[in-house]
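PT: before anyone asks, these are the final sequences, not the draft ones from last week. 440 residues across everything. Please model them as a single complex and drop the result in this thread when it's through.
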Amino acid sequence: MDNKIPIPTIKRYPSYLRRLQSYQQKGMVNVSATYIANDLQLNPIQVRKDISLTGIEGKPKIGFAVDDLIESLTNSLGWNNTNDAILIGVGNLGRALMGYEGFSQNGFRIVGAFDKNPDIIGTEVNGITVMPLEKLEAYVIENRINLAIMTVPAKQAQTVAELLVKCGVIGIWNFAPVHIQLPEGIVVERTDLSSHFASLSEKMRRVMVDKKPGFRKGWL
Amino acid sequence: MDNKIPIPTIKRYPSYLRRLQSYQQKGMVNVSATYIANDLQLNPIQVRKDISLTGIEGKPKIGFAVDDLIESLTNSLGWNNTNDAILIGVGNLGRALMGYEGFSQNGFRIVGAFDKNPDIIGTEVNGITVMPLEKLEAYVIENRINLAIMTVPAKQAQTVAELLVKCGVIGIWNFAPVHIQLPEGIVVERTDLSSHFASLSEKMRRVMVDKKPGFRKGWL
DNA sequence: TAGATTGTTAATCGATTAACAATC
DNA sequence: TAGATTGTTAATCGATTAACAATC
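LR: through. Structure below.
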């Protein structure tokens, strides 16, 4: 029935969407896959294939209607309706995420925030009053939350995650630098800064070794 | 000569390192690839292959010396010596990154921070006094910085990036939700929250459709 | 019309996984 | 010794890229 769209493709969709929204603002009516590819420095064939997986139909020589393509991508991402999420751990990173306007366009919003620090509990961040961890369970159940963002210290991540699952959460976005073990059927997405940096520094090394022998060698 | 280690492998190394450090603290002397794989819920063959790419030699039945493996992974990641980086955009996210202790283990440290907001300039964050953007060029050149972290609003990202490259930066870690166009030879690593979330929500949808038909359907 | 672009099938590429001999 | 684990080559898998007919 519905062919699964590969995760790598799904991950590129948000970039396409952002470009398209900018085209829309500029008043562009149609756009080709090649055009988007140029903008994002991607392979045109890849963009074409990615787009075709949404099921939209284009017109040879003309491309795709910008409005339609936005709708098509939004649907494929499941971002056409909004879901509620909570956030645990209101440190700097937690605060940054709570203030990130982009999320509203990503089909979800943070509706509750929790922390265990008495100094933070009760304060208001982006219009949300931080609640104590003790209230987590009741809140998740009552509001039927199934998505949680964890910005807690590494040491507490496993415990908090288990609590979340016990309450019925099925998706956890983990920013703590630890691998969490949870029962099957629970989805954990980890945003691991060290992993990203590892990739960046390796690429920098390659550039320096391959393209500029000797240049700034040993600096990174 | 030196076989390039694939980026996916490089990205897994930090997780291995973290596990190994915890083994070290527990006093473990040797560890097998299988053991690490179990801990991280990865395929043992994959871990074994990843490790072998560092060039370390293990002993059948015994595994690898924890200390040696840590050293080996650290070297492969280039994290054995420290590099200086600067950060542009001292908002909540910038602050969070400046306070992230993990980076010191990742072979780099943030030595300078810049912003254009007069209210922020001059304030101290994690022992670093925020400087005005005007001082960026002189600072980068004088301190021979080649890595910059950008936590600026999307609209400013391209301009700031160009300025950075002009000053001699060759690696940019971009947290702004835009694609930046730069000359070849400059490495840009983008940490795109929307992309991560797209992946997470797609996986949640799959779990709900595949494994629990009807269960909480339509919620995400 | 001519030619740029779509849609789709086939070829390639690279990472993951399997297989298995060597060995402590 | 027996068997768990390494090291390495081969098979598989899935994503990317190429090719090309269809078409506006």
